[in-house]
Design brief:
Shape: elongated
Largest sheet: 7 strands, mixed
Strand content: 25-35%
Helix content: 25-40%
Structural class: alpha/beta
Number of helices: 14
């Protein structure tokens, strides 16, 4: 059976190639891989080389044996070996790992990497804010449009401009460079395409899991706020999933937005509010709870909704009398959107019921939440009733 060895070249320079990899390359009669890698092979390797990147092209180029396929970094770390191996079923295949970028950069920084969160942004969509909000250091393998400058920009715009980033540029090459600075200082900066980013950990500001943050934990001023007992029920009705875009329309102090954002850092929560004082409170509450995946949109609905990304779910706590148009926009953005509308007044309850109980909506349901809280009266605790709230939920038929 013909022999094929997949060799991880490490950082791309001969100095980071393992001894086993060097021996396999010296023995090979044919070497296949990306043009950049073929140009960095150690002395003594065959000139019978074929430039190929796609798995099918690599497999087709294996014409002389023993053969080697060269890949950057480690063959098990975001490597093309994953898609190539099934195409080599008829060969005697050996895989030799190389040194990864995260290993090399960790060594340069003098720190361990076993607890680091690993994220590939190499030619992929990357939500840098979601990645760093897990309380761990984060390593980004960059490439394509997601550059170190783009990662720094995302963090800065979310309010995380003080997070320290370490950018490793052209690691292992003679002109390698490691730059350490706050994200705001690197936002939009240009780096070589052969770069990686190490982000310092962002400690969670709010650690308890679950919904129903105490009312007194929020900054609220004179702005109305959805009470704890109601807030605890809303996420269950919206049922967001990882990575979803969620709107909170008429966000007030941002209490519902914060509850939603803290469910998972991958959620993208848009808090829409027209009142200037309330917007200030939303920004302060976002920082207080570390809910940096919450984006503040100052403006009045429905106009402020037009340019927002399509939501998977939306909570409407206030619509300025434009509930009908707000629901229309939601369906235009996502015909299968999940919604929850809160109502205090009977008129709002009637209007929301009329709009959600038919037509383009399905799974309509109404829940009334009535809560009573204790208050101290001498040696006793008496119960004081809170205003009853209706929560109406439905899902688009799309």
């Amino acid at each position: 059976m013909e022999r094929v060895t997949i060799v991880g070249l490490g950082m791309g320079t001969p100095g980071t190639l393992t001894a086993d990899g060097r021996a396999a390359l010296a023995e090979a009669r044919r070497i296949v891989g990306a043009k950049r890698l073929l140009e960095t092979l150690p002395d003594g390797c065959t000139d019978n080389r074929a430039a190929a990147v796609k798995p099918e092209a690599i497999a087709a180029a294996l014409t002389d044996f023993p053969a080697c396929v060269v890949m950057s970094g480690d063959t098990g770390f975001y490597s093309g070996a994953k898609k190539l191996l099934p195409l080599l079923a008829g060969y005697d295949v050996t895989v030799l790992p190389g040194i990864t970028t995260v290993q090399y950069l960790a060594a340069r920084l003098g720190r361990p990497w076993q607890d680091v969160r690993l994220v590939s942004a190499h030619g992929l969509r990357c939500d840098a804010v979601a990645a760093v909000l897990g309380g761990r250091e984060t390593f980004f393998l960059t490439g394509g449009t997601v550059t170190p400058g783009e990662i720094a920009r995302q963090l800065t715009e979310a309010g995380l401009g003080d997070v320290t980033l370490h950018v490793g540029e052209r690691l292992s090459y003679p002109d390698e460079r490691v730059v350490s600075a706050p994200a705001r200082a690197l936002a939009g900066a240009a780096f070589d395409s052969l770069s990686a980013v190490w982000a310092e950990a962002v400690a969670p500001a709010w650690r308890p899991l679950g919904c129903g943050i105490p009312d007194e934990a929020f900054l609220r001023g004179d702005v109305p706020m959805t009470k704890r007992e109601v807030r605890a029920a809303i996420p269950g009705l919206l049922a967001p999933e990882r990575g979803d875009v969620v709107w909170d329309v008429g966000a007030g102090t941002g209490s519902v937005s914060v509850e939603l954002a803290l469910l998972d850092p991958s959620l993208q929560v848009y808090a829409v509010e027209r009142n200037e004082e309330a917007c200030g409170l939303i920004a302060r509450n976002r920082a207080q709870f570390g809910a940096y995946n919450l984006r503040l949109v100052q403006g009045a609905a429905p106009a402020a909704l037009e340019d927002l990304p399509a939501p998977a779910a939306a909570f409407l706590g206030g619509s300025g009398g434009q509930l009908g148009r707000c629901l229309e926009i939601l369906l235009e953005k996502n015909p299968a959107v999940r919604v929850c509308v809160s109502a205090i007044a009977a008129e709002t309850l009637g209007r929301a019921t009329e709009l959600l109980s038919g037509g383009a909506w399905q799974d309509f349901a109404v829940a009334q939440i009535s809560a009573a809280r204790s208050r101290k009266a001498g040696p006793y605790h008496l119960m004081t009733g809170q205003n009853p709230i209706w929560l109406l939920s439905a899902r688009g038929r799309g």
